[in-house]
Design a protein that fits this description.
Elements lengths: L1 H5 L5 H8 L5 E7 L5 H14 L20 H11 L4 E6 L12 E5 L16 H13 L12 H28 L1
Antiparallel strand pairs: 1-2, 1-3
Helix pairs in contact: 5-6
Protein name: JmjC domain-containing histone demethylation protein 2C
Organism: Characodon lateralis
Main location: nucleus
Length: 178
Protein backbone atom coordinates (compact mmCIF):
# COMPACT_ATOMS: atom_id res chain seq x y z
CA UNK A 1 0.00 0.00 0.00
CA UNK A 2 2.78 2.43 0.92
CA UNK A 3 4.60 1.72 -2.33
CA UNK A 4 1.37 2.44 -4.25
CA UNK A 5 0.92 5.74 -2.42
CA UNK A 6 4.50 6.87 -3.11
CA UNK A 7 3.41 7.40 -6.73
CA UNK A 8 0.78 9.96 -5.67
CA UNK A 9 1.20 13.71 -5.41
CA UNK A 10 0.72 14.13 -1.64
CA UNK A 11 1.43 17.01 0.70
CA UNK A 12 4.02 16.73 3.46
CA UNK A 13 1.44 16.34 6.26
CA UNK A 14 -0.05 13.27 4.59
CA UNK A 15 3.42 11.82 3.95
CA UNK A 16 4.18 12.18 7.69
CA UNK A 17 0.94 10.36 8.56
CA UNK A 18 1.92 7.55 6.17
CA UNK A 19 5.22 7.09 8.04
CA UNK A 20 3.42 6.91 11.41
CA UNK A 21 2.93 3.22 12.23
CA UNK A 22 -0.23 3.98 14.24
CA UNK A 23 -1.95 5.42 11.12
CA UNK A 24 -3.46 3.07 8.52
CA UNK A 25 -4.39 4.41 5.08
CA UNK A 26 -7.84 3.09 4.17
CA UNK A 27 -8.65 4.62 0.79
CA UNK A 28 -7.23 6.82 -1.96
CA UNK A 29 -9.62 9.45 -3.33
CA UNK A 30 -9.44 11.70 -6.38
CA UNK A 31 -12.06 14.46 -6.34
CA UNK A 32 -12.84 16.84 -9.21
CA UNK A 33 -14.51 20.24 -9.08
CA UNK A 34 -18.11 20.49 -10.31
CA UNK A 35 -17.16 23.13 -12.85
CA UNK A 36 -14.88 20.62 -14.60
CA UNK A 37 -17.49 17.90 -15.19
CA UNK A 38 -17.98 18.70 -18.89
CA UNK A 39 -14.22 18.56 -19.49
CA UNK A 40 -13.89 15.28 -17.58
CA UNK A 41 -16.80 13.78 -19.53
CA UNK A 42 -15.25 14.90 -22.83
CA UNK A 43 -11.93 13.35 -21.77
CA UNK A 44 -13.58 10.04 -20.83
CA UNK A 45 -15.38 9.93 -24.19
CA UNK A 46 -12.00 10.49 -25.87
CA UNK A 47 -10.45 7.63 -23.87
CA UNK A 48 -13.34 5.35 -24.90
CA UNK A 49 -12.79 6.14 -28.57
CA UNK A 50 -9.02 5.62 -28.28
CA UNK A 51 -9.62 2.18 -26.79
CA UNK A 52 -12.13 1.27 -29.49
CA UNK A 53 -15.12 1.26 -27.16
CA UNK A 54 -18.56 2.26 -28.45
CA UNK A 55 -19.66 5.59 -27.03
CA UNK A 56 -23.10 7.14 -27.31
CA UNK A 57 -23.27 10.87 -26.78
CA UNK A 58 -26.03 10.39 -24.22
CA UNK A 59 -23.87 7.96 -22.21
CA UNK A 60 -22.52 9.39 -18.98
CA UNK A 61 -19.15 7.76 -18.27
CA UNK A 62 -18.91 9.66 -15.00
CA UNK A 63 -22.02 8.23 -13.34
CA UNK A 64 -21.59 4.79 -14.89
CA UNK A 65 -18.38 4.48 -12.86
CA UNK A 66 -16.69 2.32 -15.46
CA UNK A 67 -13.40 4.19 -15.28
CA UNK A 68 -10.66 4.63 -12.75
CA UNK A 69 -8.24 7.19 -14.07
CA UNK A 70 -4.62 6.19 -13.53
CA UNK A 71 -1.95 8.69 -12.50
CA UNK A 72 -0.86 8.91 -16.15
CA UNK A 73 -4.45 9.55 -17.32
CA UNK A 74 -4.99 12.17 -14.59
CA UNK A 75 -1.81 13.92 -15.72
CA UNK A 76 -3.05 13.84 -19.31
CA UNK A 77 -6.40 15.29 -18.17
CA UNK A 78 -4.48 18.12 -16.51
CA UNK A 79 -2.21 18.72 -19.53
CA UNK A 80 -4.95 18.59 -22.17
CA UNK A 81 -7.91 20.12 -20.32
CA UNK A 82 -6.45 21.94 -17.30
CA UNK A 83 -8.45 19.71 -14.93
CA UNK A 84 -6.77 18.72 -11.70
CA UNK A 85 -8.01 16.14 -9.25
CA UNK A 86 -7.65 16.73 -5.52
CA UNK A 87 -5.95 13.69 -4.03
CA UNK A 88 -7.01 12.68 -0.53
CA UNK A 89 -5.77 9.79 1.58
CA UNK A 90 -8.48 8.61 3.93
CA UNK A 91 -6.97 7.00 6.99
CA UNK A 92 -8.98 4.56 9.09
CA UNK A 93 -11.42 6.61 11.16
CA UNK A 94 -11.37 9.62 8.80
CA UNK A 95 -14.38 10.96 6.92
CA UNK A 96 -14.34 12.37 3.40
CA UNK A 97 -16.92 14.93 2.31
CA UNK A 98 -17.68 15.11 -1.41
CA UNK A 99 -19.38 18.24 -2.80
CA UNK A 100 -22.79 17.55 -4.35
CA UNK A 101 -22.44 16.24 -7.88
CA UNK A 102 -18.63 16.23 -7.84
CA UNK A 103 -17.04 13.40 -9.73
CA UNK A 104 -14.83 11.30 -7.54
CA UNK A 105 -13.09 7.99 -7.64
CA UNK A 106 -11.92 5.91 -4.75
CA UNK A 107 -9.53 3.01 -4.46
CA UNK A 108 -9.86 1.00 -1.26
CA UNK A 109 -6.44 0.18 0.16
CA UNK A 110 -7.71 -2.02 2.98
CA UNK A 111 -10.99 -3.77 3.65
CA UNK A 112 -13.51 -1.19 4.70
CA UNK A 113 -17.15 -0.35 5.16
CA UNK A 114 -18.59 2.60 3.27
CA UNK A 115 -21.24 4.73 4.92
CA UNK A 116 -22.88 7.35 2.73
CA UNK A 117 -24.96 10.23 3.96
CA UNK A 118 -26.29 12.81 1.51
CA UNK A 119 -26.13 16.35 2.83
CA UNK A 120 -27.39 19.31 0.86
CA UNK A 121 -26.67 22.77 2.19
CA UNK A 122 -28.81 25.78 1.30
CA UNK A 123 -25.70 27.45 -0.16
CA UNK A 124 -25.46 24.74 -2.83
CA UNK A 125 -29.14 24.11 -3.42
CA UNK A 126 -28.94 25.35 -7.03
CA UNK A 127 -26.27 22.75 -7.88
CA UNK A 128 -28.24 20.07 -6.06
CA UNK A 129 -31.43 20.98 -7.92
CA UNK A 130 -29.54 20.79 -11.24
CA UNK A 131 -28.16 17.37 -10.25
CA UNK A 132 -31.65 16.14 -9.35
CA UNK A 133 -32.95 17.25 -12.75
CA UNK A 134 -30.09 15.44 -14.51
CA UNK A 135 -30.76 12.22 -12.63
CA UNK A 136 -34.51 12.42 -13.15
CA UNK A 137 -33.96 12.41 -16.92
CA UNK A 138 -32.08 9.13 -16.62
CA UNK A 139 -34.69 6.38 -16.71
CA UNK A 140 -32.29 3.88 -15.10
CA UNK A 141 -32.13 5.88 -11.86
CA UNK A 142 -34.96 4.44 -9.82
CA UNK A 143 -36.82 6.78 -7.46
CA UNK A 144 -34.02 9.36 -7.37
CA UNK A 145 -36.35 12.32 -7.72
CA UNK A 146 -36.74 12.98 -4.01
CA UNK A 147 -33.51 11.54 -2.62
CA UNK A 148 -31.84 14.89 -2.10
CA UNK A 149 -35.10 16.53 -0.94
CA UNK A 150 -34.17 19.78 -2.66
CA UNK A 151 -37.75 21.08 -2.61
CA UNK A 152 -37.85 20.48 1.13
CA UNK A 153 -34.62 22.43 1.60
CA UNK A 154 -35.94 25.30 -0.52
CA UNK A 155 -39.13 25.42 1.54
CA UNK A 156 -37.26 25.59 4.85
CA UNK A 157 -34.81 28.19 3.50
CA UNK A 158 -37.64 30.43 2.36
CA UNK A 159 -39.47 29.90 5.67
CA UNK A 160 -36.33 31.03 7.52
CA UNK A 161 -35.92 34.06 5.23
CA UNK A 162 -39.52 35.16 5.79
CA UNK A 163 -39.18 34.64 9.55
CA UNK A 164 -35.96 36.64 9.63
CA UNK A 165 -37.50 39.46 7.60
CA UNK A 166 -40.51 39.57 9.94
CA UNK A 167 -38.26 39.69 13.03
CA UNK A 168 -36.15 42.41 11.43
CA UNK A 169 -39.27 44.38 10.50
CA UNK A 170 -40.69 44.01 14.04
CA UNK A 171 -37.39 45.17 15.54
CA UNK A 172 -37.45 48.30 13.35
CA UNK A 173 -41.08 49.00 14.33
CA UNK A 174 -40.20 48.71 18.03
CA UNK A 175 -37.25 51.09 17.66
CA UNK A 176 -39.36 53.65 15.79
CA UNK A 177 -42.13 53.52 18.43
CA UNK A 178 -39.76 54.06 21.36
Amino acid sequence: VLKRLEEEDLDEGVRRRLKDSSETPGALWHIYLNRDMDKVQEFLHKLCKEQGLDVCLDQDPIREQGWYLSRKQRQRLLDEHGVQAWTVIQFLGDSVLIPAGAMHQVQNLHSCVQVINDFVSPEHVARSFHLTQELRANKEEVNYEDKLQVKNILYHCMKEVVSSLRRNSSDKDLKQNS
